[in-house]
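Submission checklist for the structure archive. All mandatory fields must be present; incomplete records are returned to the submitter.

[x] Identifier: NAD-dependent epimerase/dehydratase domain-containing protein
[x] Organism: Papaver nudicaule
[x] Residue count: 488
[x] Sequence attached
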Amino acid sequence: MAQLLSTCFYSNLSSGATSCSKPSTRCSALHPTSLTLRISQSPIKKLVSHRESSQRERPTRRSYNIIVAALPVSQEANTQPSNGSHLTPKESSKRKRVMIIGGDGYCGWATALHLSKMNYEVAIVDSLVRRLFDHQLGLGSLTPIASIHERIRCWKSLTGKDIELYIGDICDFEFLTETFKSFEPDTVVHFGEQRSAPYSMIDRSRAVFTQHNNVIGTLNVLFAIKEFREDCHLVKLGTMGEYGTPNIDIEEGYITITHNGRTDTLPYPKQGASFYHLSKVHDSNNIAFTCKAWGIRATDLNQGVVYGVRTDETEMHEALCNRLDYDAVFGTALNRFCVQAAVGHPLTVYGKGGQTRGYLDIRDTVQCVELAIANPAEPGEFRVFNQFTEQFSVNELAALVTKAGEKIGLDVSTLSVPNPRVEAEEHYYNAKHTKLVELGLKPHILSDSLLDSLLNFAVQYKDRVDRKQIMPSVSWKKTGAKPKTVAA
């Protein structure tokens, strides 16, 4: 078994409290490993430690990330008891191998557990840089989240199922090459991108990081598939934000146009509204091109805004609890509103509140990814699925949260704040989303009971909320060239 790569800088950042909904009980298989060292020149080092050489230093001086190699978690836990069943080597060899890039994140962690439960052989690839962002900006999840190592060991202890772990930066092609050769994926699920529009608009350095990390990382994945796993299916998380808000219906990836008497089916026009959204547009173009040029098979999941925190798998133990962001940089609309209601803060409606988007429950995110894996694209095919279940305006969400909050005794008010973004605040919006339903998606609709559950969850953890992080602090029009720190 090849060694797993683990960045020693992040080892101190990935730990956290493990309480989620029950008194603390620790999973088994939590024991140290032996370590060796290797060197990597990852672009993430620029975010981790930026140190300029003085004129007195030699011109050849260079800085490095030190990477730690440890035994795979699956080997560490082999001697530990579990209450799950073990597969025979013959059974294991038939399981589809799924590599989840960004598997420590909000959508990635829930997806990794779900696919493992559904008997896929799963590997998580992650640089853990999302945890670093919290430390840099003074942010934190509403929920206490365990380290990735403890999460995986707990899953092994509870289910008997292994999740392999590779910690490193996919912008480092040497690391990605070793990972591909070691795991040999049948499918790559790519969540591993900086996913916040506000983060990409803080300053020049964050804008550059977002586009470099997202575009170069995805290019590396495409080259790795071409060189090492040419039949591998890429399932890439895109965003509905690629489309913008056109005054016509939004199709699923392509539109048929008749112009001057001639007709063609073309990629749907893209109008990304931040450096983050534009990075996703560049990704889509690169993936489409490599499908045509190299015969790669790919599915682009243009996902709407995700809400919720619980899935069947994350509910199994406190150490498996998912993160929930409520701040103005990484928090999404409905999650933020529920947390604001729980602590008695007015719901922050940006501008006129007519901004309309597609939304989906996190349980539907994992369901959609599973459907895409089970029904792969053909070689050379670039599919686009619009991944959401319902459409809401910001005002509609605020009204729903207000009504649900009042039912459980919360005094919920709404506050219109100046819109920090550059966007239409009243517009037409009608996006198609039929392809995943045709594959068998059974959506979780935003019901009163679901809102009640999410609000009560927020109330449970309201003592962890930093109210200073609620109001928006990143302005699209004030994005500057000099590095900035979001006000704490």
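[x] Structure attached
Curator remark: The mean pLDDT is 86. The two ends are 45 Å apart (CA to CA).
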